[in-house]
Amino acid sequence: MLLLWGSFAGYSQEVSLSGKVVDGSHQAVPFADALLLQANDSVTYKAAQTNELGEFRFGGIAKGDYLLKVKTIGFEEYSKKITIQKDTLLGVLSLKEISNNLDGVTITSKRPIVKRLTDRLEFGVENSSLSSNNAWEILSKTPGVMTGSAGAISIRGSQSILVTINDKKVYLTGEELKQFLENTSGEEVKSIEVITNPPAKYEAQGSAVLNIKLKKNLSLGYKGSVNTAYVQSMYPKGIASINQFYKGKKLSLAGRYGFGSGVYVNEGVDVVHYLKEDGSVDSRWESIMRRKSKSLEQHSYRLQASYEIDSLNTIAVGGTGFIGVKQQGEFTVPTFIYGANGALDSLYVTRNNRRNPLRNNAYNISFDHLFSQKEKVSVAADYTKYWREELQDITSAFSLPEENPYRTSRFISDNVQDIQLFSAQADYSNENNGTLEAGLKFGNVKAQSNLDYKDEIDGSLVNNPNRTSLFLYDESILAGYASYNKEFGKWSLKAGLRGEYTALEGNSVTTFEVNEQHYFKLFPTFYGLYKASEGHEIGFSYGKRITRPQYSKLNPFRSYYNSYSYFMGDPKLLPTISHNINFLYTLKNKYNFDLFYRLEKNPSMEISYQDYETNMLVYHFTNIKKDFAFGLEFNTNLTLFDFWESGIQAGLSYVEDRFQGRDGNFYKNGKPTYNTSISNRFVLNKKKDLNAELNFQYNSSSVQGTFVFSQTSNLSAAIRKKIWNGNGEVYAIISDIYRGEKETVVTDYANQYNYFKSYGDSQSFRLGLRYNFGNQSLVNKKKEVQTEEQRRL
């Protein structure tokens, strides 16, 4: 008790310091770094960041003499000596702007900044040399993030990633998300947050969160940009978009529309070995695939409007969408069947004509009320409607050594997914004594998957009831959370707890099979960051997460690729529970080291197996027993010379999955993995309006479930030139120069041996043009943060 009393007595001697930062036009400067140093010492005693109103505050300060520094991109550093004996309000601090003028136009090109925060890593790219990239290219250069040609995103080997824009979930996955971000200009991006242990405020779904922060214009006026690009891979593609921003005294508007059109190709070879009991090959099935898909109209949009009712109340509405109604493909796949002696026994050719239109629209509304500058409440609601159809017309021509040496078969499958998601939430925050956050959220999902299957019999299409299905899914989640963050001298601590109650029902109407689950889970999080001395930060974090099954993967019915291959889901899929532990160290504010451990129980993923009785190759989405990984990651952004910047990241880890085989035995699939990424940016002239990039990415062999993935790599280069007095830019990009993203995926255990080789048409040449109009001088101070919603497709 005496010790506790002594501690409280010590804290009673602490005081606070606060102020407001503005520019030469008396406009607030948000998100500037405020540093408090002890007198005659170069060590940072306290650190803070200004909010959207330019205000900052230090609490828990011991009385004494200090040096206050304020710095941010585009302004000269502010420095002032100050003596603090009581709670002190400094008033307004004015920063002097730095300009680099080219024919009267300000061009900014700063080094991207990697900043370690208590619970995340922030990759600041605003006004940096990466601003000319699109959002997908910036994402691929973000520390700790690995991207693939087909839109795959992984962090530490896991692809269970929640992607948000300004804290709002993006209800797009894979290639759809990639196309959406490719049509988003990098000039809109302020920063990207990599959150490997998401705090309690974020829903517990997913192993990590990627939050893309887009700019919010805080100065009055109007500006915009037009972007267009021509892409040549195996076939040509075209992209065009327009972005517009307006801010009045009370009304703010932002809008973006993008259009894309092109032909996409995926090449591959599927090989299946059927083995005898002694392990020798009984037969080998080899399929040669060249999937050519046309997406003639890709429409994407983002609209946002906010209105300041008064200084304390703001309402905002918005919407995002991706629409691709003209998407179709024609696939011809020959399959060669070889006997034990290696000679060709038989052949069948599958022709697949498909249409897969898509519509995805999300709408949101929010209301913010300020009780004071440090206390507010936010209420938001979101609604998403996702609709997708996959219509396949599949014909197989068989040439077999039977009584009827040649025959054909045909079937049509029409799978329609209709998903609706609604969520509502309320969030409260108070920064008067540390930062307290709390909130409630309700979410509901209604999904319907209807598979209509018809066989051709004597020239007529006849419904096949054994392969036709209707699957209904209803899920409700009620969640609440609370977290608290406070600085104690050199320590920054944050702890939170989130509870989620889930009630779901999966109804396979065709088979009268109903799966109900009701469960309540707690998800604790904890973070600690210790600033040992100037240039040395040590951190620790722990978080528990859940990954619920994707809705479409709960459908147990078979979706056939051809007569001998199909995909099926599992209505009894269990949620995945993961535990994440991180140890962090940052040197000189630019060298970041992460030591991590991840354990997942009942992870769900796609595995493949051969059915020897039917010669079927089955792709089954199901749970495996467990997955764990541990390793070390490193990243930094360096200015090697005045003309040369380099972003470097590398990771070394061990990943192991354990699963039950078709024979009932348990197997483990694990190996050490290595990845590295180097992004080099060069300034080629004195005006700094001619820039180049040379980027390299390498991933060693890795594992997932039953699969072993081969190594891949990617070398790309780009050159960019400012034109029209800095208002325009022309650029050229060459991606995957030597086709290093070709990949082989192998399954090899017990009597299971199959593999496929794939190449996703990643080698391309892109020629683009960007033009800015309106008052571009508005672009120097901005930011946005809000809420969250929809995904899990």
What share of the residues lie within helices?
under 10%
Tell me the number of strands: 49
Please tell me how large the radius of gyration is.
28 Å
Q: Would you tell me the structural class of the helices and strands? A: mainly beta
Stretches with pLDDT under 50, minimum 5 residues: 1-12, 100-108, 778-793
Major sheet: 28 strands, antiparallel
The tally of helices reads: 3
How much strand? over 45%
Measured distance between first and last alpha carbons: 54 Å
Task: Please give the structural blueprint.
Elements: H1 2-11, E1 15-22, E2 33-38, E3 44-49, E4 55-61, E5 64-71, E6 78-84, E7 88-94, E8 101-102, E9 105-106, E10 113-116, E11 121-124, H2 135-140, E12 146-147, E13 153-154, E14 161-165, E15 168-169, H3 174-182, E16 189-195, E17 208-214, E18 221-232, E19 236-247, E20 251-275, E21 281-310, E22 313-338, E23 344-355, E24 358-372, E25 375-399, E26 406-430, E27 435-457, E28 460-463, E29 469-488, E30 491-508, E31 513-533, E32 536-547, E33 558-562, E34 565-568, E35 576-587, E36 591-601, E37 604-611, E38 616-623, E39 626-641, E40 644-660, E41 666-683, E42 690-699, E43 702-704, E44 707-709, E45 712-723, E46 728-735, E47 743-749, E48 752-759, E49 764-774
Parallel strand pairs: 1-7, 14-17, 34-38
Antiparallel strand pairs: 1-4, 2-3, 2-5, 5-6, 8-9, 10-11, 11-16, 12-13, 14-15, 16-17, 18-19, 18-49, 19-20, 20-21, 20-48, 21-22, 22-23, 22-24, 23-25, 24-25, 25-26, 26-27, 27-28, 27-29, 29-30, 30-31, 31-32, 32-35, 33-34, 35-36, 36-39, 37-38, 39-40, 40-41, 41-42, 42-45, 43-44, 44-47, 45-46, 46-49, ...
